[in-house]
User: Fold this.
Amino acid sequence: MSALPNSIQARDVRYLLHPVTNARRHEETGPIVIESGDGIYVTDSDGRQYIEAMAGLWSVGVGFGEKRLADAAHRQMLKLPFYHSFSSKSNEPAILLAEKLVEISHERLQRVFFTNSGSEANDTVVKMIWYLNNARGKPQKKTFLSRLGAYHGITIASGSLTGLPTNHRDFDLPAIPVKHLTCPHYWRQGREGESEADFVDRLAQELEDVIAEAGADTIAAFIGEPLMGAGGVMPPPEGYWVRVQEICRRHDILIVADEVINGFGRLGTMFASDYYGIDPDVMVVSKQITSSYQPLAAILFSDEIYQGIADNTAKIGTFGHGFTASAHPVACAVGLENLAIIEENGLVANAKASGEVLQRELARFRSHPLVGEVRGVGLIAAVELVADKATKARFDPVGKAGAPLFGFGHEHGVIVRAIGDQIAFCPPMIIRPDEVVEMVARFERALTDTAAHLAA
Assistant:
């Protein structure tokens, strides 16, 4: 950090509290201030350029510096910079974006509600389903099923759905009725001698047992990321989602697909629900809906759910929920243009093609002494570092390898994400195969430095 008392880094330390950050350590190191971005690259205030291997925060699908999105925002700001969607008000970009989302998503998803973030969206899903079940005369049907290792946001409700200890500790979460099931990560959670099919059977039986114990009439919904992201990029085992859906349908439990990270092409299909054969009752999208150029999220849900909610608004007089910026016209205009870029530039197909290169290049590290597992689908992947390859033993403390690798990555011009000792990759969907090779080469240099650091 610059020693100048009035440097931008010093002013950051003086005024800002950062998310997912050790505040006392940040006071000592200060921030890396990102000043600009272009394509897959970002540049800091000292002029250093990095490949942004995380697309910012799993989100900048069309890359940085996309003029079409800036122009779309500018046009809408001049025309109508803001209007609310309360009390039967609307705006054209929100209407057109809702129509587009229904067009490209699953046939049963016919209705849309806009929020500003995935956290707000999942919080809203909880309230919507509670509201619906009260209207259905089933006030006891309130419990949500989630999974350990899941990430669904950080509000009180969505943070409760999240299955990560650091998002619960000292926040008094979970604070809503939620039951967390086993994380569907076969490599880490499978038992000795247990096949992948046996693992799926065990998780299916666990789901059946939890429903039987709680009573199906108390369980409202099962929420899950099709491919778990922020918990460490964990693709589910084959057949997992088929079993989950069959059990939930049989017990009148709604399926909520959290596609906040997965959606709009990341796995090489428009939605990860397409990839895994999920037919959700509710789907939540954010991040790549605008490539995070504007805050926006959307809840897509079935007409059956809508009709139940709508009937209750007629009965009690209103749907008493919403945000000042719900269906914000500038955000929706950017979202429309962003989806047009994804379609016109073939970014879903590019994610599939460049994703094959990413998975192939990372697979080379499976024999590395620090690497326990390499996993992923399309343009999302993780390399898990372990203290002992034979036993899969984790580092003690967690992060002993991941934290230095994160730092060495910056030295070699690549920004990855260290989730403990799991190194995540989620580059912009515009990335070319040759750029993937260069990104992984920079990671390899950081991995070499990490091995030397641990051996010292």
